[in-house]
Design brief:
The complex is a heterotrimer of chains A (49), B (356) and C (315). Chain A is 37% helix and 0% strand. Chain A is mostly helical and 49 residues long. The longest helix of chain A is centred in the middle third of the chain and has 18 residues. Chain B is α/β, with parallel strands linked by helices and 356 residues long. In chain B, the strands form two sheets. An eight-stranded mixed β-sheet of chain B has the order 3-2-5-6-7-8-1-9. In chain B, strands 4-11-10 form a three-stranded antiparallel β-sheet, with no helix packed on it. Chain B is globular, with a radius of gyration of 22 Å. The termini of chain B are far apart. Chain C is of the alpha/beta class and 315 residues long. Chain C has ten helices and eight strands. In chain C, the strands form two sheets. A five-stranded mixed β-sheet of chain C has the order 2-1-3-4-8. Chain C has a three-stranded antiparallel β-sheet with strand order 5-6-7, with no helix packed on it. The chains are: A mainly alpha (49), B alpha/beta (356), C alpha/beta (315). At the B-C interface, α10, β10 and α12 of B face β2 and α7 of C.
Amino acid sequence: MGIEPGRLHFSWISSAESTKFAKVAQEVSDKVKALGPNDHFAKKELKVA
Amino acid sequence: MKCIKIDKNEWAGGLEAAASTYRLFGPVKEDEFYEFKALEEGRAPDAAAMAVRNTRTSPRSVVYPQAEVLFEYTTDERDPDAHVMKEPEREEKPRAAIGIRPCDAYSFVLVRNNFESPEYQDVYWLRNYEETTFIGQACHDPCSTCFCTTAGCGPFHEEGLDVLLADAGDHYAAKVLTDKGETFMKAAGWGDEIDFPDEEWEGWKTAAGEKIVSEVPTDRLADIDTLALHDADFWDDVAFSCINCGTCTYLCPTCWCFDIQDENKGREGIRYRCWDSCMFPIFTLHGSGHNPRDAKTQRVRQRFMHKLKYFVDRYEAGIQCVGCGRCVQHCPVNIDIRKVCNLMNSFGETESCSVA
Amino acid sequence: MIAYTDKIQEIARRLLKDCKVETVIGFRKGSVPMMNEPCFITSADAADGLVWDGNCGINLANYLTNRKEKIAVFAKGCDSRNIANHIIENKIDREQLYIVGVPCQGMIEKRRIRQMAPGEITEATEDGDEIRVKGRDFEEVYNRDEALQKNCAVCVHRNPVIHDEMVADEVEEQTDVDRFADVREIEAMSPEERRVFFRKLLEPCIRCYACRNACPLCYCPTCFVDESQPQWVGKSQNPTDIWTFHFLRAYHCAGRCTDCGACERACPVGINMRLLTKKLNKDAFDQWGWEAGLNLEERPPLDTYRPNDPEEFIK
């Protein structure tokens, strides 16, 4: 599709792995934040065409 | 007959001059077919484009865009206009549809019945329509699927046009039909008035009419009982192959149904309207969850009954179809309005014959 | 393939006369060149109206959804795979169907022939490997192979995979085709190039949903684009909404698409949206060796778990 590398992450976390979940969520959010605002596949303006 | 002679060498230049006053729309070549859309600067439709029979998408969107913002607003209190519903800024130049086919131009005349009635006036549609000048291109060579001559118009039909161009080889003979048309011709700098032989024009018109091989009888539609036609047993057969896509209704120049939608982002919001289609399952979905047309057959029947019966009864302006044949050519499963119109028009005929 | 018509009529007549089925779903002759119309018949007398030629590209599996009666259906390779899909996904019972297999040599893409022809085609006839087209002032003959639907040209499952009866002997399957050359080209692009490519690809979309509705896989009672409470996708021509529709639709077909080409065939503005589903087909094939609808026994990879599933993309 052309999503920028680094914006999409996959992880396998069991429901028992709460600390892993928190750690991964933090990492993902840091990485995505570092990329800056998403310019693609998002409606930046209210336009109809 | 008075005509303006437009030398084909002066065609592109004239349109360029007109473009300073008008926003031009016309047939534009996409990868493999023509669309009717805004012309980019300096991109006048060439001879090939003008000779194109039917653009894939109809010129409906010139007057009635697929999606059109009605108003916008903000709820940001810091904005002095907070909570005020404002019309979006409009392009000031009037529009001109270049090379529109007579059938497509006539479609607006039919559609106007819906957008302008004694009770209701749709200001958005009417404003767009009234500011548009229609520079038509006569059809010298109609398609095999065209049935305009039995759908209320024809290859040289003038109703709904401001200028009608006929292709005279090295030049266009332009028959100016309205004041609006005259204003456009002046803006384009075309003023070479000639006496065009009536016989030649009529000859073209007759020759083009003779090339129309499809005919659709509509003479009995008005007299057939609506409920009986609604309950006719052919609808299941007609509708079986339909996949309920919007191809027919979105390519059709005369389909007018729309949906109203709100969208917002933060404190900004817009209300727009966009085309809708009676083929879609949510078209008549009620707020209660009930859908009076929740089966495919009902939706297919609605499309044909609307075009070929309800419209006929309500407006006495013929059928809501100009015979352009787009739906015939592009329906993915080959549902053919000519066949359906035949079925509807001959409904009950055999019974009455057998009684006689 | 025209030779199939007699046999098809004979089978339909027999099945209806013997009350083996209540309905037969097939094709009748179309009203414009290179088009046939899907139809159903319920009496043996009506079997004379059935036809078969290279213009039967519409996937008839699409017409089985939610039907209750016993049905006979004519099925090409791809149709039969979609029928298998339907059965696997519990949309229809195998016992409800009498599948008449139609070995296929590829369907004709009328759009391509129209482009090749010097004028409007008013008549087209198929004769063996040739297609003869006529217009008002021309007559041309084209080689059938040049005019195949793009998916048919690279098809490796021309013979029906499940059937109760065959219309004719199996045809030879193509083996020397490169099915995913176009997908590899896109894979080789940078994300930015890909974005530009897809933007251009989807630009002409008028949101008629013909691709979705022609697809036998799209049978959700309410499609996500039609959902209004809450509404997931805007209804304007905003490119983001158009992309959302196409990409999500493609993802809904992951591991299920048989590349029957119904979507592209139906599109009135010529979008090659198979490029989206083919990428997912390629992934399913590369990762799990999976091709949808080849049999009734195996579960699709996306609705089952195996310990050796590839998971390199997961951390």
